Amino acid sequence: MGQHTPPARQRQLVMQWRASDLSAAAFARAHKVRPGTFRTWIARHPPEPNSGMPKAAFVEVTPTSDAFTVQIGPHALAFAEPPPAAWLAALVRELGSC
Fold first, then answer.
1. Taken in order 24, 27, 30, 32, is the CA torsion positive or negative?
2. 23-57 in b/e burial notation, b at 16+ Cβ within 10 A?
3. Phi and psi at residue 78, in whole multiples of 5°?
C-alpha cells in the first residue's frame, strides 16, 4: 500500500481479514501492509455489533436416526453425519450475509 491508506480502505481490508481464515500478519503481508500497521487498523476499526449475522438469524440443528438436519433461516441442509464445526460456522456466516 502507499504512504497513506484512506480510512474507508483500511476498514474494507479489516472486514475482509475478519471474513478470512488468515492470521492478521499473513493477511497484511498478502496486501503489502506492514503487520504492525494492520494491527493498528484492526484496533481503529472494531467489528460492528452482530456483524456477519442477520438480526433474526436462527440456526436449528436436529439429529434424527438417519440424518443430521441444519436449518439456517429459510435454508435446510441434511447430512449423513454432523459436518465439521469450522465449515458449518463459515456456511452460517455466508448464508447470513445473503
1. negative
2. ebeebbeeeebeeeebeebbeebeeeeeebeeeee
3. -115, 135
| Per-residue model confidence (pLDDT) at position 55 | 47
Phi, psi of 34 (to 5 degrees): -65, 135
Nearest by Cα to 72 from 87, 10, 81, 23: 87
> What pTM was computed for the model?
0.50
Helix (H, G, I), strand (E, B) or coil at 50: coil
What is the rounded CA–CA span in Å between residue 98 and residue 33? 30
- Write out residues in the chain with pLDDT < 70, as ranges: 1-2, 49-65, 73, 95-98
**Lookup: cell for 35:** 503487520
Radius of gyration of the chain (CA): 18
C-alpha cell at 30: 498478502
pLDDT at 56: 43
What is the helix (H) or strand (E) element at residue 12, kind and residue range?
Answer: helix 7-19
